[in-house]
Design brief:
single chain; alpha+beta; Jelly Rolls; elongated
């Protein structure tokens, strides 16, 4: 009986030892790897999100990325986007001061927001807007347009809704 008890204890100790070894081996963190073979990522724009809301992205539709350049006073004309838009305001050169003012026609009212270099904004799907470059320098907007019909345009021209007089 004593011999059976010793075997049981040895078996339990060995089982716990192997279990501990397995836990220790699996607890060692993996080593991060750096990109190789010419794989590179170059940021083209960065902005702090200044709006409210989100845009749904649907499978099977295109996502279009553009660089929009507008001199001071330039206007996009009234338009909308089929899947909405995310804009990151940039500027050509160091020390420049660009701004884009977005006029939105919302429920028969004009809602005006100005976004400056380094800020990000959202235009919701179907929202009728006009963007005007209002800074001291030429503005660059990096536009990301999700939900574009395959092969279609990310922009839909719209008539002036007459909610923002003088624009």
């Amino acid at each position: 009986m004593r011999r059976l008890w010793s075997r049981g204890i040895r078996l339990a100790v060995m089982t716990l030892g192997f279990a501990g070894l397995a836990v220790a081996v699996n607890a060692v963190p993996g080593v991060a790897t750096v990109p190789g073979g010419g794989f590179m990522s170059t940021p083209v724009a960065r902005g702090t999100y200044m709006d409210q809301g989100t845009l749904p992205v649907k499978q099977g539709l295109d996502v279009v990325v553009t660089q929009i350049t507008s001199p001071v006073g330039g206007s996009s004309g009234w338009h909308s986007h089929p899947g909405g838009a995310i804009g990151v305001v940039g500027c050509a050169g160091t020390g420049c001061h660009s701004a884009i003012t977005i006029y939105r026609s919302v429920g028969g009212h004009c809602v005006i927001n100005t976004y400056t270099n380094g800020q990000t904004f959202v235009e919701r799907a179907g929202e009728v807007v006009v963007a005007i470059s209002t800074g001291a320098n030429t503005a660059i907007v990096y536009g990301i347009f999700p939900g574009v019909p395959v092969g279609g345009s990310p922009r839909i021209d719209q008539d002036d809704p007459l909610t923002c007089p003088g624009v």
